[in-house]
Amino acid sequence: MSIMEMSHRGKEFDAVIKKAESDLRRLLAIPDDDYAVLFLQGGATTQFAAVPLNLCAPGDAVDYVVTGSWGDKAFKEAQKFCKANLIWSGKSDKYTKIPSFEGLEQNPNAKYLHICANETIHGVEFKNYPTPSNKDAVLVADMSSNFCSKPVDVSKFGVIYAGAQKNVGPSGVTIVIVRKDLIGNAQPITPVMLDYKIHADSASLYNTPPCFAIYICGLVFEDLLEQGGLVEVEKNNTKKAGILYDAIDGSDGFYVCPVEKSVRSLMNVPFTLQKSDLEKKFIEEAAKEGMVQLKGHRSVGGVRASIYNAMPLAGVGKLVAFMKDFQARHP
Amino acid sequence: MSIMEMSHRGKEFDAVIKKAESDLRRLLAIPDDDYAVLFLQGGATTQFAAVPLNLCAPGDAVDYVVTGSWGDKAFKEAQKFCKANLIWSGKSDKYTKIPSFEGLEQNPNAKYLHICANETIHGVEFKNYPTPSNKDAVLVADMSSNFCSKPVDVSKFGVIYAGAQKNVGPSGVTIVIVRKDLIGNAQPITPVMLDYKIHADSASLYNTPPCFAIYICGLVFEDLLEQGGLVEVEKNNTKKAGILYDAIDGSDGFYVCPVEKSVRSLMNVPFTLQKSDLEKKFIEEAAKEGMVQLKGHRSVGGVRASIYNAMPLAGVGKLVAFMKDFQARHP
Fold first, then answer.
1. Do A171 and B210 make contact, defined as CB atoms within 8 angstroms?
2. What are the CA-CA distances from residue A103 to residues A2, A99, A130, A135, B1 (Å)?
3. Per-residue pLDDT tens for A268-313?
4. Which residues of A fall within a CB distance of 8 Å from B44?
5. What DSSP designation does A137 have?
6. A88 catalytically annotated
């Protein structure tokens, strides 16, 4: 019987989900007593609503720092459920920056401060994290596109959430790590499926979970532990990204990455060609050599290399070699 | 590259989801012009909230006929978002009946009438469907556990929704068939992921969908069409269920099915042993012969044989033979 045929109430699947949770706790050093780990559905987009619904009452203030499209979507969704303030936006700089934390004007009564740790489309990544100025507030992060790509000090966060489909599993499962004392105060209008208490109380088995996706996540967590944990994973990701950014910066302007150097993503490397009319050809020729999905997101264009955990160093090496060759052929 | 590695924005996955939708439309004869077909996440439990959020304003009246645990959950969730009325409940009869439609006291202003077409735990199935008395109201059905087990006249419904995991795919995808004129009036507090308009406008690709689960659903739809469509599927299911109910009814009371004969489910066959102390032994011995997951739902106990589309006639035959043998050994 395959994992897809088993009852999610059986002891076999129970062992699968418990092992997945326990391996994730080891990977991220998540304290058992203080944080719940939930395997949910609906992607980060569902969490854009679940976070305000669980963490604040309708009139409460919350703060959003928006460094790209995903943070912007989270901010807009929160406005339905509380008084969401946009305290910083990188939009006028085309989302190429992270603000200085000292300059952030946080609301003194904000219940939480929300960031998107890595902006998939714009390639902007937080390298460290702001602290909420209100000592009762918590930091909340959407880590969908850099989850398990490097170690994270979970104790700095009230909620971390991540769609699994970038680094840890197939699409269809969303992981939420939430500080236990924040659970249990959902607004009365919270749908059952968005209520952290329902899922925490039933260990993510309130209704039928996405069993197969959770099973695959568990295998990936095992593999990441075998690789030496997230310290090793980060080393590898740093090396991969370094080679690619060096190739861009060393191209005498043939390739251009618009993102500020100190906040460039280890996961998503967006760049343009100075001669923008060559971009289509670049993407087509790369595809012929087996390098696909290099087109920038439809909202920004250009080229984007997403080099998640699963991309080997050799894959990045091949791309860099192709970039140099392409440049040589188009002087 | 596997389906799990592809971008959901690529032409490969686009072909997969379009083919799945088109095959489902053929299977259920869903009119293209009048109904949207959505592939969503979060199970029927998410739809328990989405239905009232999309179909009515906070003060609107809606009617629920509750014939089992799932209908009861749907009713309770709806109370958060509108004035939900329980117009009939089978609870006092331990959920073994379906009401006569003539006797239903529907609210004249109800926006919809909600039923659960097949109660998975109690084994009670609607064989035909009530009509809302208010001509502007629509019928809404949770078909999670009998979806694609028989033909359904979709035009009688405003909304049909179904978690896929019983008959058509792995857990993690929920199919919603919704009449197009009902889309676009969601309450302002509706989370984006519960808003039918968002998903209809983007052909179920607003955010990353559960690609693998949708792919498998597509394969199942192809298979059901090859079997001759739902008329043939129903014939097979009727034969399977008939053999099992006959064995129960012909056991001189050794086995007892509490459900009223005219509304017994073709999918879930719950029964008890007159000598209830033998149930544990029955389930253990069946497991030794490879027949597992026969334990009744933890909320009701007893035995339950779930004989979804994928269960072959021979599987039911084997169970019936075992039942007769077990009875002979326990006179």
1. yes
2. 54, 8, 11, 17, 45
3. 999 999 999 999 999 999 999 999 999 998 888 899 999 999 999 9
4. 207
5. -
6. no
